[in-house]
Amino acid sequence: MTIKELDSSLMGQYTVESMLEGSGKTFNQKCSENSDIAALQIQGSMWSLRTKGFLCSHYVSQVSPEGKFTLMMKAYMEKYRSNESNKKNTFIKDLYETTDLSILVQQISMLAMHAQLKDCENIYEIEEEIQSRSLNPESVSVAIALYTYFTILVNKSLDALSYNELFIKSYYSYYENWMARMLMFQMRGNSWKQSFKGVLLE
Length: 202
Known about the structure:
By secondary structure, the protein is mainly alpha-helical.
């Protein structure tokens, strides 16, 4: 699939879903028993729609901050996927190859969490700003959207119509597993980031 083809479909979806006030689907995702987490999870459908608009923002204005960012990221994605060695990356290879949606969801949500915490110097004493960002739906959604977009771009088992399901399930997984992943990263100590060396949003 080409970026142009994917963008064309996402723009069409965005137009239709905007008129219908979003897809409204949750794909049978169960909310956390923790009410704070559940309050974040139920925003998944809304952020799925918003991120489609964000990913195509450069068609509206190439000089807007969003437009500049998405153009830059898409150029980077083209370069990244042209490098065959990236297909061998431990965390990235499944995005290219697997047909199992549950595995893709786990990988995307894990990679999105790395993207939120990668600037942390000490995983045992995370700066308040970084921790806040790792729970902020807008920041989290952008990371999930970029990885969802890239996965659809490189994985032949998916098409543009996979966006909502892949994004929403990854979004739910992100918040459901936030605490467990934080503990997992801490168990690895401050070398945890080495595991993610070479990923798309390194």
